[in-house]
Structure formats: structure tokens, C-alpha cells
Amino acid sequence: MRDIIVSCFSENAINVSHPSCSSYSNTNCISPSQSPCVQNAVTSIYKIILSNQNVFSVKVAWCKNNSVQGLSINLGDDPLSTLKLNINSRLFRKKKGTKAFDSGHSKVEIFWDLSNAKFEQNPEPVEGFYVVIVLDSEIGLVLGDMADEALLKKLKTNYVNNKPVGIARASLVSRQEHCSGINTLYSTKARFCETGITHEILIKCSGDNEGLKHPVLSVSIDKKTVIRVKRLQWNFRGNQTIFVDGLLVDLLWDVHDWFFNNPASSSSSSSSGYAVFMFRTRSGMDSRLWLEEKLAQKEHDRLEFSLLIYACKSLQ
Known about the structure:
2 domains, 10-stranded mixed sheet, DUF868_pln, DUF868 domain-containing protein, 3 helices, 46% strand, mainly beta
């Protein structure tokens, strides 16, 4: 991602106000003639800190395509500390279950129930499910709206064994979203800090079909346009600094492949390649982006969040 910084075209700061934005729907900004891009995969990385200060990194990935719809959970870099579920497979009968394994010197237990999960058109379910990860008898991560059953079961079991159940601190560190579609129109939601609200993000690329001589990229947060890049074929890489919930957020884009990728030479002749959009919070003490000498130091600073979007513009 650092090569995106080579071509920076603006560092103007834009403040995003958010009164009553929680009731906003992106459908108000979408023309009936435009169908939004579809999510193919969502990957979230969580940082979990136990009461003994042990730190775990947990990656939760949801994917969906013509043949597979599934969930995978990885702890750290250990390939053996993995849970993989293929919901569409005929061999997959257990949409509700548990799995226990050791990761290093820690005991890991995963509880899940996807039997009544509602996915709509996304790879990630929106309701009717739960995924609970327990690390060394501490509840590390809870996903979904139906987790009470698993939690009560775990609490009851440990009460009988006279083992107290703690609750670890879990924070969402990064989220990656893969999407594809004929139209370059994508909407998603993000919360940039634990105390902030959920914001609606809309990314749109206007073109010749709208009477414009040159493609224009616009990004809106809660109905407010935060960037508008004209002559996108020239300004295909850049960055902008915005304020969201009182935080500095660096918005970076790289749409080079949308214009200059040769489908005939790529692995998929039906795709023009991925564009990349990143939203990343940073400390006001950093005067420049991506200071490599501060990477180690950032581990001890305020937790930062990044949203990474890979947008594939389909040709058919």
C-alpha cells in the first residue's frame, strides 16, 4: 500500500459532521439505473487482550461466490489454529457446534450457530447467528445477535467446575472488503473508533454514461462528499485527510487498474483489475503517513483502525 503515497494530490482536511446520520440510507444517493457492487468477501482482524495481558490476533473471514459460502477463523499465524466452515457444502451438516484446540500454550474454544443466520446478499450474516471465541476460559470475542445461549452454557459449565469466567478486551483493528460489479458504485458501513457511531460510506465513479467528459471519483460519508477527484485517469492515486468523530482519518485511493490494466494479459479476461480504497485513523502527532520507523511504537499507542476496500470493475 505504501506505493500509493507516491502520488499525493491533496492534503486538505474535511470535517464530517454526523447529526442524525444513523438514520441515513445509501439508497437515497443511488440512481435506479445503477446497481451497486456486490460483496464477495469480508475479513475482520481483532485484537484481544486477556486479563493476564496476553494478546491474541484473531482473523474472521466470510466469503461467498457461486460455489462456496463459508466462514474461517484464524488465531495468529498458526495454520493449525483454524476453523473452516463451508455452509453450502452437502458435507456440511453441523451449522451449530463447538471446536476446541490448543494454540501455543493457550486453550481455545469456538462456539457457533449459523442454522438460522440471515445473509441477505452479503457473505457476512446480518442477524440470527452467533460466533463466540473463548481463550483460556475468558470470553474473547462475541459476534452476532444470538450469543446468549452459548455464553450461558459456557458460564454454567465453568460455574459447576468453580472456574470464574472473565471477559477479555476485544477491539476491531482492520476490516477488508472485496466487491465486484459492472457499475463502480459501492456502499458500506464503518465505525472508526469504539466510542463512535456507525457511518455510511458511498464510493461512486461517474463516467461517460452520465454526460461527463472525464471520469470523476466521489466518496461520501453520511451524505456529505468528502472527496471529489476530477480527471480520474490522471489522478488515479492520491490521498485526502478528513475528520470523523474528532479523529484524523487518511483516505487513500488507487484506481490505476481500472484504466490501465490489460484484461487480455490478466488472469481474468472479464475483470479490469482491483481498485483499492483505504480509510485509516492516525494520531495527530504523525505529520506524515506510514512512518515505518514508528511501526513498532504504534503497537503501544492508541489503537488505530483501518478499512480496506478492494473493488473489482467487471467488464460483463
